[in-house]
Amino acid sequence: MSWCAVKDCNSGRKHRANLYGNEGSDVRFFRFPKTSYYCDKWIDSCGKNRNGINTNNARICSLHFDENAYIPKPLVETMLGISPRHKRKLKFDALPTLKVWNTSSCIDYVEKNTTETETTNLVDAGLEQIHQEPLNNELVNLEESGVDLFNMSFQNDHYCTTINGSNISTSSKSTIDAQHPSIEDSWNLKKNKDDAQEISRLQNLLNDKMVENKSLKEEITRLKNIIAIQEGKLLTANDQKRQEHLFEIHFREKLSEMFSPTQIDLILNPKEKVFRWSNEDIAAAISLRSVSSKAYFYLREKKIIPCQVSLSTLRKWAATFSVEKGMLTDVLALMKEKGKSMSRNDKITVLSFDETYISHKISYDKKNEQILGPYKCVQTVMARGLTCSWKQPVFYDFQCPMTKDLLYNIISEIHNSGFEVVALVSDMGPTNIGLWKNLDITPSSSWFINPVSRKRVHVFADVPHLLKLARNHFIDKGFDFPENVYVGKNVLEEYLKISKKSEFELAYRFSEKHINVTGTLRQNVKLATQVFSNRLAEALKYCGKKNMLTMYNWKEASELIKLFNDWFDLLNTQLPIDKFTKSYGMDEDSQNELLKKMDSTIENMKVHGRILVTNASLRNLLIDIKNNYNDIYYIMTRRVNSDVLENLYSYLKGMVGSNTHMTPIEFKYCLRWYLLGKHSNMVFTNNHNTQDTDESCLVNCLSGIIFNDAEVIECFPTDVQADITDDALTSVMSDLGGNTEDTEESNSELLDNYDIHSLMEVHEMSEIEKECIEYIIGSVVKKFISKYPYLGEKVYHCNENNSSWTEQMTKVNLIRPSSDVTYVANVIETIFNIFHGNNGLNKSPGIIKKVTDLVLKEINNEIPVEVINCLVRTRTFIRLNNLNKAIANKIFDVKRTNVKKFIC
Question: CA–CA separation, 303 vs 310, rounded Å?
């Protein structure tokens, strides 16, 4: 950085701003002149030793020069008001006069050596020097130096006036004017001429600038208009974009329940390619393929739904998921991640474990190059939520009975994943009974300590399994009550003899196969629940009060069946209120009374120990849940049974398309698809695909979902089931009799040979038939009672001896039909038997409409046609169900006969 050579001048130094204020920002530095004369003057002005100044590098700042030391601004800059301070130059003879040390030497030197003659000669010669001594050595050509002579000599008298403020310049000027008057005039003429030319040039320039300015203003106006148009388009585009964004948000919101975000993106942008499918999309695709590979490929090929995940992608994703026997570590890792978004109550866990038989065949695992088998069975452990609907297999192993150490290890692994086990469920297999003994499980101590949390884990026996054991005991041996009261299957056989007399039955689901149950049918829970059902208990009670049953302790049998039915309903709830049964804890006092009654009733039965343990565990579990968790005051008891494992085994067998035992390799890789397809969706989203039910109900549920989503349910007529045909129906009707030939006879001609009213009087119904018909008619009328209130009236529960079947069975709102509807039902029954025969069904098309038309011709009351049509359809299905039941009984009798022949 440059600094000023003048003594005590701080320009160019750091603290110059403090010395000169704002002037420091405008200070310029000038080099010493090359002319020795002026260079010496500049050196004298610095006030320093001459030898201490290097004139090649030294500078003097602009603060030491007055305004007259600078070359005047050109006329153009003066007219335009331009003042480029940093571009101005010093005159060739400028000397520092402000704030310097030795200005007198300059003044003396000028006064001593300057004369009027020298000044006149200087002007005449047009030289830049004003002193004689420099004039002889450094003559400068005015044209070459570019110095304005007029500005230098005549325009201003600033030079000498600035130096000494005396009359030296005035005298010099007057001398010049007296001796050379023509020079001034010539210069004035030249100056005026030049000024006129400059003014003309500037005027032309100004005109050009004005034209250019006008053109620029027009261009600015045009550009402003363009900007306004573009801004309008931009606002329109932004508004359109905002509308599209709002539409996309609304569109995604509407489809979010049916499609994943990636699928919605495909719908919005069908031409774009998906570069990465989400876990949710892959899980959904695997779920679809696990149910039906043909349906998956069909939907992918036809693009009915936006699901285009290739099979190779599914295989790659599935190949990375480990399902080696033992703890399913990948599953536990996923559960741990999922648990981070779940509440503490949602992570309350119930463990279920069970064994199933597998094939004894030896299998080869190609991936691991490993031999599997032969094995007899596979042990599987399932974890499920007590308060939240989730479930997940966490362990499997071949030929591995459950032990105390293994159980503790499984519980510890689940706890490390963030879930807390509070209950344990198993059936009463031999190995499981041994585990109970090792855990010291008794009715008085129905729990063990969690090895990690040190809290109680309550042990439950599988309630459906207990019910099957009770049914087997009831059918095989019967129950002994105090005072030598015996209840066995003989009372059920007596009831079947009564119900066989008519097509109308009080307990229409109960048949001989429920009594003569053998083989694999003993594993069927549905048959056991139909034996211990409320309807059968009420049927026995009704027949006993009407003196149709007079022996075999029908009253005690009815009470026992009723007790088992109520107990099973209480321990099998899957909703807070499930078919009029409240979950345990919502009506705790009455429910504890039921448990207490069950405990006291079966103390002497073989299965009593397991039932007592289960009842005790249920009571204690509710207490612990209320104490340890917030906002839980009831238990949906179906979540403490082993139905989830039964569903798992049924599903895996269905995947290989066989009901026989699976091989070890089939179980392993079907379990992979089960995990990835049915349950991986639970890990990555808040949805799940399984239901706590058996395989047939699973199929019904899936088909129901498909029909509901497609909205085709309402497109079918209400009698769509009439289109169903059964090849076996023809043979059974031939065996049982009835009209099986197609008839072309018109409806009017069919009844010409019959007197309907006479037939109605001749055919007198039994009391059970009348009660059953009233119950059936009431169920039909219930569908239309809000539309046609005159068809019937509500019935309230009555348990007296003279009460009807409808009054005995009603709980809330059963209907007693009016006399007109009952009369129409009797007409329907008579015409139905004429049209179809007593034991068959007419095979001609349109049978519902034909019978309805025949009935309408025979009645005169105002019963709506749709009600009559529904009654005819219901009567047809009753006949159809009875024929199917006859087919099943015939097949059962044939099998039993073959077994007897083989034994003999």
Answer: 13
Could you say which DSSP state residue 572 is in? T
Rounded CA-CA distance 288/299 in Å is 10
- CA neighbor of 642 nearest in space, from 384, 443, 333: 384
Provide the terminal-to-terminal Cα distance of the chain, rounded to the nearest Å.
128
Whether 817 and 806 have beta carbons less than 8 Å apart is answered as no
Q: Which residues pair with 481 in a beta bridge?
A: 485
Q: What is the largest CA-CA distance in the chain?
A: 172
For residues 410, 413, 419, 420, the Cα torsion angle rounded to the nearest 10 degrees is 50
Query: Buried b / exposed e across 791-810, counting CB within 10 Å, b at 16+?
Result: bbeebeeeeeeebbbbbbbb
Which pLDDT value is given to residue 451? 94
| Cβ proximity of 504 and 769 under 8 Å | yes
Neighbours of 369 (CB within 10 A): 7
* b/e per residue 109-132 (b: at least 16 CB within 10 A): bbeeebebebbbebbeeebbbbbe
Which residues are paired to 356 by β-bridges? 378
pLDDT one-digit tens code per residue, 213-255: 999 999 999 999 999 999 888 888 888 888 888 888 888 888 8
- Here the tokens at position 88 are 């101005």
The pTM of the full predicted model, rounded to 2 decimals, is 0.57
Mean pLDDT in residue range 638-645: 91
CA distance 94 to 105: 15
User: What gap in Å lies between CA 393 and CA 349, rounded to an integer?
Assistant: 12
Calpha distance 134→126 (Å, rounded): 14
Q: Bigger pLDDT: 69 or 753? A: 69
Q: What average pLDDT does range 208-215 have in this prediction? A: 91
Q: Yes or no: say if 602 and 567 are a contact pair by the CB < 8 Å rule.
A: no
| Position 852 pLDDT exceeds 60 | yes
d(CA 494, CA 552): 9
Element (H, E) at 184: helix 181-255
Spatial CB neighbours of 96, under 8 Å, sequence gap ≥ 6? 6, 42, 45, 60, 64, 65
CA distance 147 to 137: 19
On whether the CB atoms of residues 504 and 774 are closer than 8 A, the answer is no
Strands 420-426, 348-357: pairing kind: parallel
Contacts 24+ apart (CB under 8 A), 167-171: 168/110, 168/111, 168/114, 171/116
Half-sphere exposure of 40 (CA within 13 A, CB side): 6
